[in-house]
Amino acid sequence: MTQQLLVYVPPHPLIKHWLAVARDAATPSVLFRSAITELGRWLSYEAAREWLPTQNTVVNTPLAPCAATFIDPQVPVAVVPILRAGLGLLEGAQTVLPLAKVYHLGLVRNEETLEPSCYLNKLPEKFDPETRVLITDPMLATGGSIMTAMAELTQRGVDPTLTRIVCVVAAPPALQKLSAAYPGLTVYSAIIDETVNDQGFIVPGLGDAGDRIFGT
Ligand SMILES: O=P(O)(O)OC[C@H]1O[C@H](OP(=O)(O)OP(=O)(O)O)[C@H](O)[C@@H]1O
Ligand SMILES: O=c1cc[nH]c(=O)[nH]1
Ligand SMILES: [Mg+2]
Question: Whose CA is nearest to atom 3 of ligand 2?
Fold first, then answer.
């Protein structure tokens, strides 16, 4: 079977609700931050399905032995938030993946050229090839930032087929770039919007996610 980019938009009322709150220009920063946290929680919950490795065993209930399944503690799990805005999704992701290591990657787009540059890289030199990596960034617009993040990860041994991207709004240019470069990668998004405007903003989108999370 040929692999392709998988993009899931989970049809969940909580995801729809918090997306609506985040989209509304009248939502103040404090509530916007809560909405992004909730989206991080529920999208990470969905992303963990058939991704977090488990091990089967037997436990003794007070009454009898019983087949049981635990999360496998041997397989490394990592969350990579793309600063700044990816930090907004991190807290929710950590409620689902409390034992994951967190490796920060700071990327910022040049407002004119839309080219991303890296100002902080806390990735390890090499990842265990079995590592499950969950990247958080609320906005996949032109795709420059997420492609930079994927390049930094894969050159350190990360397997794209074991990688999940959690975002809030994904736009076609970013999804097309990911699809061409990383078949087998999986994206979880609250929504896919139609366009990116000349200034690099997703329309209708939700505006500048980083500025709205941090009130700047
Ligand atoms: O797909 P792209 O066109 O690269 O755009 C998406 C990027 O833009 C935003 O970051 P920004 O550069 O605004 O930095 P910030 O998170 O610090 O605000 C967003 O959080 C993504 O990382
Ligand atoms: O619409 C957009 C596009 C990129 N980054 C944002 O924060 N918003
Ligand atoms: Mg920004």
Answer: 201
Residue 86 Cβ inside 6 Å of ligand 2? The answer reads: no
φ, ψ (nearest 5 deg) of residue 203? -120, 125
- pLDDT band for 1, please (50, 70, 90 cuts): low
Whether the pTM exceeds 0.95: the reply is: yes
Q: Is the ipTM of this complex over 0.90?
A: yes
Contacts of 117 (CB under 8 A, 6+ apart): 107, 108, 110
Q: At what angle do helices 29-48 and 13-23 cross, to 10 degrees?
A: 150
Domain ranges of the chain: 4-50+75-212
How many angstroms does the Cα of residue 55 sit away from the middle of ligand 2? 39
Ligand 2 atom closest to Cα of residue 209 = 7
Q: Using the mean position of ligand 2's atoms as its centre, give its distance from the Cα of residue 209 in Å.
A: 6
* CATH T-level fold of 4-50+75-212: Rossmann fold (3.40.50)
Could you count the other beta carbons within 10 Å of the beta carbon of residue 200?
18
